[in-house]
C-alpha cells in the first residue's frame, strides 16, 4: 500500500481579509466545482493538458496561465463558485479515480457536500486564525500562490505533511476532530468507507514576507516548527494537529498567514462492493498523479 501525497494548490486573490486580523473565528465555506481539467497555472503555466487532472473551484477567470499580480483574479473574474462573492481565489486538488482491476479502466470519483453545506462537487475551504486569540496574521498579498504536497512522492510518511485521509462512516461521522488525528491515514483507507472519504489538506502558515511564489511553489512558505514552543500567552490544550498549531515560525519565515485548509469529500460509496475491489481486496482508488 502506498502512502498518499496529493498535489493541492491554491492561488489566492487579495479580496479576502484585512491587512492584519487578530484572534478572529475561523471561516469555513463551500466551493462548488468550477471545472475538472488538465490545467495547472501554477506548476505548468500556459500548458493546455497538464500532466494530470485537477478539480478546481473558485473564480471563473481560471485559465492555463495566470501570472502573479499581472493576472488580477479580482479584475478578471465576474463570479466564483465559492460561498463568498468577494473571493475570486482559485483552489484545486488532484482528482480521484476508481481503477477497475479487471480491465484497468478508470472512472472519476465524484465529490459531495460536506456536513451542513450546500454545494455541487468541489470542496470546503477553511481560513483558520491562530488559536491563541492573540497572535496576528497578515493577509495574503495579491498574486500570492502556494502548493502543498508533492506529486512525485509516493510513499513518504512524514513528508506528506498536512495531507491525510479520513474514512467516513455513516452520517458523516467522525465529523469533528483535527485533521491527521485519530484514524486518519497518510494513504487512502484500505477498507470500504460507508460514508466516503474525506481528504484533508493543510497549508503552511509561515511566509518569508517577500515572495509571492517560488520556483517549487513551496519554499517561500513553511510549516511552523514542531513541537509547539509557546512564545505567546498559553494555548489551550485542545488537540491541534502539528500543522494547526501555531508554533514558532522557522527562521527566514517571519510572517504568519491564516491557515488554509481544504476538505474534499469523495463519494467512493458507489464502489463499495467486493466485486469492484479486485481479488486481493486492495483499495481501488488512485489520484490523478498516480498516488494512492
Ligand atoms: C512505505 O514505507 C513504509 C515505511 O518506510 C514501509 O514499511 C512500507 O513497506 C512502504 N510501502 C511501500 C508500498 O513501499
Ligand atoms: C471495466 O470493468 C468495470 C468494473 O467491472 C466495468 O464497470 C466496466 O464497464 C468495464 N469497462 C470495460 C470497457 O470493459
Ligand atoms: C497585533 O497587532 C496589534 C495591532 O497592530 C498590536 O497592537 C499587537 O501588539 C500585535 N500582536 C502581536 C502579538 O504582535
- The end-to-end span amounts to 8 Å
Largest sheet: 5 strands, antiparallel
Helix content: under 10%
Number of helices: 1
Small molecules bound in the structure, each named once? 2-acetamido-2-deoxy-beta-D-glucopyranose
The rounded Rg comes to 18 Å
Mean pLDDT across all amino acids: 81
> Strand order, biggest sheet?
4-5-6-1-11
The succession of helices and strands, N to C, reads EEEEEHEEEEEEEEEEEEE
Low-confidence parts: 1-6, 14-23, 155-159, 227-239
Strand content: 25-35%
| Estimated structural class | mainly beta
- Count of individual beta strands: 18
Quickly count the domains.
1
- How would you describe the shape? globular
Report on the structure:
By secondary structure, the protein is an all-beta fold. It has one domain (1-292). The chain has one helix and 18 strands. The strands form five sheets. Strands 4-5-6-1-11 form a five-stranded antiparallel β-sheet, with no helix packed on it. It has a five-stranded antiparallel β-sheet with strand order 3-9-17-13-12, with no helix packed on it. It is globular, with a radius of gyration of 18 Å. The chain binds 2-acetamido-2-deoxy-beta-D-glucopyranose (NAG) (3 copies). One 2-acetamido-2-deoxy-beta-D-glucopyranose binds at residues 100, 102-103, 105, 276.
Amino acid at each position: 500500500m502506498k502512502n498518499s501525497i496529493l498535489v493541492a494548490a491554491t492561488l489566492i486573490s487579495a479580496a479576502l481579509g484585512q491587512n492584519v486580523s487578530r484572534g478572529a473565528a475561523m471561516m469555513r465555506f463551500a466551493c462548488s466545482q468550477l471545472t475538472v481539467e488538465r490545467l495547472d497555472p501554477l506548476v505548468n503555466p500556459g500548458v493546455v493538458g497538464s500532466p494530470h487532472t485537477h478539480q478546481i473551484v473558485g473564480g471563473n477567470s481560471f485559465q492555463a496561465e495566470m501570472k502573479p499580480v499581472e493576472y488580477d483574479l479580482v479584475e478578471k473574474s465576474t463570479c466564483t463558485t465559492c460561498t463568498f462573492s468577494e473571493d475570486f481565489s482559485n483552489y484545486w486538488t488532484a482528482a480521484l479515480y476508481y481503477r477497475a482491476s479487471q480491465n484497468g479502466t478508470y472512472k472519476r470519483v465524484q465529490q459531495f457536500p460536506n456536513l451542513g453545506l450546500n454545494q455541487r462537487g468541489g470542496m470546503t475551504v477553511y481560513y483558520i486564525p491562530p488559536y491563541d486569540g492573540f497572535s496576528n496574521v497578515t493577509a495574503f498579498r495579491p498574486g500570492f500562490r502556494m502548493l502543498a504536497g508533492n506529486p512525485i512522492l509516493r510513499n513518504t510518511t512524514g513528508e506528506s505533511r498536512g495531507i491525510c485521509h479520513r474514512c467516513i462512516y455513516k452520517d458523516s461521522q467522525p465529523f469533528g476532530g483535527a485533521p491527521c488525528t485519530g484514524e486518519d491515514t497518510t494513504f487512502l483507507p484500505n477498507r470500504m468507507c460507508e460514508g466516503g472519504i474525506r481528504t484533508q489538506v493543510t497549508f503552511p502558515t509561515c511566509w518569508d514576507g517577500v515572495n509571492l511564489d517560488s520556483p517549487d511553489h513551496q519554499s517561500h512558505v513553511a510549516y511552523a516548527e514542531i513541537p509547539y514552543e509557546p512564545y505567546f500567552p498559553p494555548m489551550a490544550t485542545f488537540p491541534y494537529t502539528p500543522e494547526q498549531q501555531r508554533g514558532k515560525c522557522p527562521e527566514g519565515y517571519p510572517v504568519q498567514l491564516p491557515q488554509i485548509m481544504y476538505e474534499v469529500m469523495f463519494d467512493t460509496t458507489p464502489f463499495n462492493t467486493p466485486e469492484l475491489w479486485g481479488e486481493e481486496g486492495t483499495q481501488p482508488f488512485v489520484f490523478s498523479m498516480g498516488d494512492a
